[in-house]
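## Example pair
The file below holds two records. Each record gives the amino-acid sequence first, followed by its structure token line.
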Amino acid sequence: MLTKERLRAVQNESNVCADIEGFDFKSYDTRDIEELRRLWLQYGVLRFKQAGITDTQQVAFSRHFGEFVIHPKQKQEGGHPDHPEILVISNAMKDGKPSGAMGNSEATWHTDTWFYERPPAGAILRAVTVPPSGGDTYFLSTYSAFETLPPALKKETEGRQIFFQNVYDKTGALRLGKSEPRTRDFREWSGMVHPLVRTHGETGRKALYLGGTTDGAWIVGMPLDESASLLVELWDHTTKGQDVFVQQWDQGDIMMWDNRCTMHRRDGFDPSTIRIMHRTTTAGERPI
């Protein structure tokens, strides 16, 4: 049986990701899982290079890190035929229809399902098929984003809450189960209010919480123009001045991230090539 002495983390060139060495997905015990959880909370993102595990092994491993939650895209084009816990991210077509979610387009910076009352705690993403180039995934620390805010800007965030509309997605399409709003003022639409700076439920550290877009986001109580201006400043600081880790995928790679203190994005790629990823998602708490 694997012991903690053989399991180790090697920090990558960024402050947000570490490579895990010495972990056997076929043979591990509770001590190994406890150590992985400690490292996950420490770094925010863990990478397992070319792990080469099966869907069944991924589901079994993921179960150790929390209750499964269904990603909204699993209710549409991203369902797995045998494992309801898995979201299939793929641009492959089957019988003239998408066999998975997201296609080949770019995915901009975001925290997963930020518009939910209880956004997920984490995600585990495994590369099944990768294109020759493109489709890279980028990660940054929202702990660092908060901690490096200039004092005046940090003061602006104190005690603030942020509203996210949940009617339209980032492409402008209606979300599942939503209908067209009757007013143009998105602040009156269905949505969710979260703290602009959230306190991590396990580490107690503070992280900036910006969701996934400035469109349809409002810092509660501020005039709309002032809110928009402050959000642009916070987004610029977070995405342009932070240490970023870039994952260039190999088949079998696994990335495991803490959704409560990180953001990520994805490059687009050539639609004539195929990229298939299998993802599991674990439940989180309401941000405080």
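Second record, same layout:
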Amino acid sequence: MFKNIMVPVDLAHLELLEPALSVVADLAKRYDAHIIYVGVTANTPTSVARTPQEYEQKLEAFAHERHKVHGQPVSIRVYSSTDPVANVDKQLVDAVEETGADLVVMATHLPRHLDIIMPSHGSKVATHTDVSVFLIRVAQ
């Protein structure tokens, strides 16, 4: 049913992604799917990496470690931006098409009042693409 599963990854908050990563591993095994880990980073130094190239190396290492866990084929896609906070939604929507994803699995926060003004990334991806989006709630 699913052949290409896209997983947005924030390397600064890996501990929050574990429930979603477990679901991705199960789905990928069940459907013999390819997993694409997608990261969005700044063009300037961040707490994770000094350059987009260093961020890409770290995401590649992360993907390699995840491959050891679930055994499914993996790849990465990194997007760099002058303002990742403002551009992440558009870049994730673009990544769905560019990667050929037919499912997006994302960790998401519990609903908040602020969502009325600033919707979650998962909401944006779900309403601006034609693929299935599976949001995994992260208890906070």
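Notes on the second record: Confidence is low (pLDDT under 50) at residues 110-119. The chain is about 45% helix and 25% strand.
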